[in-house]
Write a structure and sequence with these properties.
Helix 11 packs antiparallel against helix 13. It is built from 16 helices and 20 strands. 45% of the residues are buried. It has a five-stranded antiparallel β-sheet with strand order 15-16-17-18-19, with no helix packed on it. By secondary structure, it is of the alpha+beta class.
Length: 478
């Protein structure tokens, strides 16, 4: 269904045959297609006027029930307020799943992913969608088993649990909800299986300590969490572009936040002591010698302690979570991290890898075992071409991501306080460029790491929009 504010529609059915599609050609797909046009709108506008077209995809049963409400300018000069625009955008990702609710990770391709949904919950809380978030958190908590929750849900199938971060994001979302409600009532409520939310959180933490069936385990000597390959958000596989087997830095920041939450709510010496151990270990094992940033991952195979792992020296943005989640409090280290990760910034996004050589090689082998990259110079600035040999190697090795971008201004504000507020706001406002890009009013999934930083991937990505909204509200409430 289509609707225009004024003017009229003229029916003029027409087929265009063998239309060339450059993006499909770039990706090695069938590049010719036939396109049907039912007609055209005739609209007349004068100087200073604006016009809106609204469209909605309907099933055959919904024809005649279109609910087209075009966005109206939020200010007298015809521009939109970013908060109102993002608030409208993020609501479009929340959908029903049985008696509960979940989040579509991105349009047009993604379903509901564990980590994406729980990261999105933070922005939904900022938007005041507390009832929706309660349903989302109960849904994913109900899937908890042996310390794991689904990496993704496909229909009724929740067997994919290859994620070490999704269970930990559940703690962060619960902490945000308790803070927003100024109450611990939610974690005392029952999940569908009869356990309280707090009992489920304790089950996750206890299983991380003893070891989960899928290979996650807390190192008893350091308190840090071992993550199997492809279990973090940089989980591209086939080919294995960023396996990160060992002790990834953001997993430790999330683990510290999870244990801190239990220490606060349970007042148990077990959790208080472990929190302190994790904090000391992050400060001990992750700073790189002769570098001003943290190791992205302490690389090792299953069964090895953190002290025996190899420090990956690639510069990535994951370490920013150590600052935003309070796992690192050293002022000098924090300032160094901000100074170093600044080179990853592009307008509205942050690159997943710095364009600089590394000492610890990152070897990417294709499905035929042929080398796809330069292991000592793994940066890949353009996300284009064939999926398995070009796009996947680039996906987390130079491609700029929108969801992690707000972490930088948030960390900047947390480190520098009110003195850094204006700078943090200025950096965050560069997201207006992405909002006006491929799908106006939405945040794209990724951008090319190299200029001109073209939007790629999903046109509308949930966690990019919700994280921008969350940090926008945070900085503008100061």
């Amino acid at each position: 269904a289509l609707h225009a504010m004024k003017g009229h529609f003229s029916a003029a059915p027409e087929w265009s045959y063998n239309v060339f599609q450059p993006k499909e050609a770039e990706r090695g797909l069938e590049a010719q297609t036939d396109i049907f046009s039912p007609g055209y709108f005739s609209l007349e506008i004068c100087g200073g006027e604006s016009e809106e077209l609204a469209g909605q995809a309907l099933t055959s049963a919904e024809i005649g029930k279109a609910n087209l409400k075009p966005l109206r300018p939020a200010t007298s000069d015809g521009t939109f307020k970013i908060e109102a625009l993002l608030g409208h955008s993020i609501r479009n990702f929340v959908v029903k799943r049985d008696d509960y609710e979940t989040v579509m990770a991105g349009y047009p391709w993604f379903l509901d992913w564990g980590r994406d949904t729980l990261i999105c919950a933070r922005g939904l809380i900022s938007a005041g969608m507390l009832d929706e978030v309660r349903k989302i958190l109960k849904l994913f908590a109900s899937f908890e088993k042996d310390g794991s929750i689904p990496n993704m849900i496909s229909g009724k199938n929740a067997s994919n649990r290859d994620t070490s971060d999704a269970p930990l994001w559940l703690f962060v979302a619960c902490a945000d909800l308790c803070a927003a409600e100024a109450s611990d009532s939610f974690i005392k409520e029952k999940a569908p299986d009869g356990r309280s939310i707090l009992q489920i959180l304790e089950s996750i933490a206890d299983n991380y300590i003893s070891g989960t069936p899928n290979g996650i385990r807390c190192d008893s000597s350091s308190g840090l969490v071992f993550s199997p390959p492809h279990f973090t958000w940089m989980d591209t596989n086939f080919p294995a572009s960023t396996p990160r087997e060992g002790y990834p830095v953001e997993i430790q920041a999330l683990w510290h936040a999870a244990v801190s939450f239990l220490a606060e709510k349970k007042r148990d010496a077990k959790w208080i002591s472990l929190k302190e151990t994790i904090s000391r270990s992050i400060s001990k094992y992750f700073p790189l010698r002769n570098r001003t940033w943290l190791s992205d991952c302490l690389l090792c195979e299953k069964g090895k302690a953190a002290k025996d792992a190899v420090q990956d020296d690639s510069l990535r943005p994951n370490q920013l979570l150590c600052l935003t989640l309070g796992a690192l409090c050293d002022r000098k280290i924090s300032e160094d991290i901000l100074s170093s990760t600044q080179e990853l910034l592009v307008p509205g996004a942050i690159r997943s890898l710095a364009d600089r050589p590394v000492s610890v090689p990152l070897k990417i082998l294709g499905n035929d075992s042929k080398l796809l990259n330069d292991p000592l110079n793994p940066y890949w600035g353009h996300y284009s071409g064939d999926e398995d040999t070009r796009r996947k190697p680039a996906y987390h090795n130079g491609t700029a991501w929108t969801w992690q971008f707000p972490l930088y201004p948030e960390a900047y504000f947390k480190v520098y306080g009110r003195e850094g507020l204006a700078t943090a706001k200025s950096l965050l406002t560069s997201s207006m460029i992405t909002i006006r890009s491929a799908s106006p009013g939405n945040i794209p999934e990724i951008l090319d790491g190299d200029a001109p930083h073209l939007p790629k991937g999903c046109d509308a990505q949930a966690w990019g929009a919700t994280e921008l909204y969350r940090v926008w509200k945070l900085l503008n409430s100061q």
